[in-house]
Amino acid sequence: MAMASVSGTDMSREQFLCSICLDVFCQPVTIACGHNFCKVCLTTYWNGSLSCQCPLCKTIYGQRPELSVNTLMSEMAAPFKRSPGQRPAVVPGEVPCDICPGAKCKAVKSCLVCLASFCKTHLEPHDRVATYKKHKLIDPVANLEDRMCKKHDKLLEIFCRSDQKCICVVCLNSEHKAHDTALLKEECDRGQAKLRKLRSTAQLTKCKREIKLQELKRLLAQNNVMAAEEKLEAIKVFSALVAAVQRSQVLLLEEIEERRRKVEKQACCFIKQLEKDITVLRRKLIELVELSSHAEDHHQFLQTFTSISSFPQVIDLDKVCVKGFQSLKPVWTDVAQLEEMLYGKLYALPKAKLRMVQESYAVEVTLDPATLKTGAGFILSEDGKQLRTTWISRLGNTSLDCSVLGKQGFHSCRFYYEVQVHGNTEWQLGVIEEAFKRDRNHREYWLLQLDKMGRYSCQHQPGFYGLIQKTTILPPSTNPKKIGVFVDYNGGQVSFYDENGKLFHSFTGCKFHEKLYPVLWSNDVKPLIIMPVARQKK
Asked: Is 199 in the same domain as 333?
């Protein structure tokens, strides 16, 4: 009766499609709002939702309705269901099977010998029959007739390098006889090699510009920091001058700002060009990567490669050169000599300089328990920040063999760390080269020491144990609570400060060969404590 009803009315398959799976209803259910869905589809939909609502009209149900199959709807939909072996028809954009009668199925492969596309069912002879197994299969493509020579109706299987076009065998023996030719696969392999080289060149060019871009941005940041430092120093110096020189202060600030703007303008110009180059190169790389994915389609590859193989024009990195901020510091010296009263103002600058070092170059330092020598009598805290000894050597001789190194090593940079020494009567601290971790006889170090007699000294030993140690006895000093260690690796400098910014000693002209590690030694039960650097609130 239901069948008669279906055939008696002008019903279409689309009226029996589930809006979730887009296929003919299977065990259709009807909910209160009147919409129909496959039972499995609706159950799965609700299982993945926070609330029970209709997928179409979004009607929300307080409680999950009990689903029962609509038998009438199921009988009406039955004539529109596909047979068990039938596949869904192709959708726009997909390649249809050339063999399927009536509704076409989606092709899974195209044969360059048969010049046809096949669905999974009709491709089966190519997997089974020996003759068909030799055919060349590629991912499905439309318009296989475009791969035939329009003039001779032969397969385009040769590439003419002279004319940059695909030709057939007959063309090869006629108008292209004297031309430079190659098989499509051979030419495609050649093009892929060029493509890989082009991609490599583009990638390398992009990376170089990214590096240069970062260098320029760092230079720009340093330029701003240096300009800010110069402004601050200028304000401190000129604040004590009489009104007659206040105009000079304004002019000097303007000059600093002009120099900063000049560097910024030049750097921003190069940055804009480099960012533009990088964007162009990224697009180029996307095109090249996309072309690589079509390598099996020789015809399409060669047609596309010819149009995108040209390399984009980018800026010459040798021309990207920006001079850094040119300091006006000699002016400060000249101005300072005008009034003796400026010396009182300049006295506060060392602490300000130390604060700048702390804010710019402070690093996290944790002592490495792996460098703690067994039997040395040291105790290292769990967080790796405190070091003390369990017994005091009466000899009071320092032993670098028992020193403890930091976990972090530093190379080609500036860094600063602080150690609380308050209450400790005998200690050493500073930096040492990485070779000491491999061989404790190799001990090139730069240290500040307090001995048991209360004397401060700086020590530098070049190279291996046994070489002459250079020791500098420092003038008597009030006992500091903290010692700051500042290292300028590229500048060859190691400096030691107290908490007030007073300079104990500075090693200059140092030649560092590898990573530098913080190093500590103590001969007191009072601990040496690596302190977090207090930063100025901005």
From this structure: yes
Report, in this order, helix, strand and coil percent for the chain, each rounded to 5: 40, 20, 40
pLDDT per residue over 303-323, tens digit each?
Answer: 777 777 677 788 788 777 877
The residue written with tokens 């190069």 in the block is 270
Instruction: Give 205-248 pLDDT, tens digit per residue.
Output: 999 999 999 988 988 898 898 888 888 887 776 665 555 666 77
SS (H, E, C) 270-328: HHHHHHHHHHHHHHHHHHHHHHHCCCCCHHHHHHHHHHHCCCCCCCCHHHCCCCCCCCC
What's 417's domain CATH number?
A: 2.60.120.920
Q: What letter does residue 495 receive in the DSSP assignment?
A: E
Is residue 247, in this structure, part of any structural domain at all? yes
> What total of structural domains would you count in the chain?
3
How many C-beta atoms surround the C-beta of residue 536 within 10 A? Answer: 9
The pTM of the full predicted model, rounded to 2 decimals, is 0.39
Instruction: Give whole-number Cα distances, 217 to 106, 502, 507, in Å.
Output: 53, 33, 31
Whole-angstrom distance, CA of residue 440 vs CA of residue 435:
8
- In single-letter form, the type of residue at position 332 comes to W
Nearest to 42 by CA among 32, 31, 33: 31
Domain range enclosing 515: 362-531
Query: Are the CB atoms for 142 and 156 separated by under 8 Å?
Result: no
Q: What is the mean pLDDT of the chain?
A: 81
For 322-358, the DSSP string reads: -------HHHHHHHHTT-TTHHHHHTTHHHHHHHHHH
Extract the tokens encoding 30.
């009807």
- CA dist 361 → 354, 419, 486 (Å): 10, 15, 8
Pairing of strands 386-389, 528-531: antiparallel
